[in-house]
Amino acid sequence: MIVARSRAELRSALGGRRSAFVPTMGALHEGHLALVRRAREIDSFTTLSIFVNPAQFGPKEDLSRYPRPIERDLDLAESEGVSVVYLPPAEEVYPEGFSTYVSPGSSAVEWEGSLRPGHFQGVCTVVLKLFNILNPHTAVFGWKDLQQCAVISQMCRDLDVDIRLDFLETVRESDGLARSSRNVYLSPDERIIAGRLNVLLRSAGDRIAAGERSAAVVADLLEAIRAAGGTPDYAALVDPVTMKSLDIPQKSSRIMMVVRVGSVRLLDNMPIAP
Ligand code: PAF
Q1: Catalytic residue list contains 137
Q2: Ligand 1 mean position to 217 CA, how many Å?
């Protein structure tokens, strides 16, 4: 495995070849490793980036304490057969004088978009830069970040980005908690609460699949989350392309929630069978 710490090292490692690419912010867990395995099924020449992107963190968010276990990440990437890891310094991604950003589309307006102003602008900007720098033929993302999947897909459609996007279902702990780099912040008590939340989401999804209107089900879900000790930011049944909320499920709609437990924001979603 080659670790490229600069654009020049990356260029020589790629040798003009296109790859199956997994963009990450590091602190790799089973969810990321599943993305790498999918990428390797698509192409044995697999690239992975590790870059904690300052542009997608708000001023009061956890940029400085975001976990950065680089040596462990590199060992995991190597054991999964990644061909090239791109580990750029921040100055290479955002050099002095950098001032051009991608303005994300309509799918970025609600939900995370309204609670975290600038977040998707930062995500789209870095993802488009990484796409331009690595020039992969395929990029693999996890459904766990549902709105991110919608926003990046829309960016690629709207800006004619010639990269195939592949999305993989969420990898979960044994109690169903979605794997996330931020789960390490949970205290033991918070971890127990976090584990109960996906059960609530799943049973809300089952009720909608059985024909109940989402408005009533979501209202019950929000109450159940509070009773379980979480603080919901939102929950909704949505179309995963437009991110508009739906009252009745359509093909491929998903139920999602974002819940704060202690200082940790937990994102989760799952498909609904209409
Ligand atoms: O999902 C993530 O880890 C990040 O948002 C991404 C896509 C690597 C961009 O920084």
Answers
A1: no
A2: 31
Ligand 1 contact, 125 CB (< 6 A): no
We find that the CATH architecture of domain 2-168 is: 3-Layer(aba) Sandwich (3.40)
- Tell the residue nearest (CA) to atom 2 of ligand 1: 24
Q: Report the SS3 class of residue 77.
A: helix
Sequence ranges of the chain with CATH classification 3.30.1300.10: 181-269
> Cα(271)–Cα(267) distance, rounded to whole angstroms?
14
C-beta of residue 218 within 8 angstroms of C-beta of residue 237: yes
Query: What pLDDT score was predicted for residue 194?
Result: 97
- Which single residue is written with the structure tokens 């819940």? 259
Asked if residue 112 has its Cβ within 6 Å of ligand 1, the reply is: no
Q: pTM higher than 0.85, yes or no?
A: yes
For residue 274, the model assigns a pLDDT of: 64
Ligand 1, atom 9, lies closest to the CA of: 123
- Å from CA of 256 to ligand 1 middle: 19
Cα three-residue angle 179-134-66, rounded to 5 degrees:
35
Query: Terminus-to-terminus CA distance in the chain, angstroms?
Result: 44
Q: Which two tokens stand for residue 255?
A: 């139920």
Region of residue 169 (phi > 0: left; psi between -120 and 50: alpha; otherwise: beta): beta
Architecture per CATH, domain 181-269, reads as 2-Layer Sandwich (3.30)
The pLDDT of residue 273 is 76
Tell me the per-residue pLDDT of 152-193, one tens digit each, with 9 for 90 and over.
Answer: 999 999 999 999 999 999 999 999 999 999 999 999 999 999
Q: Strand, coil or helix: what is 242?
A: coil
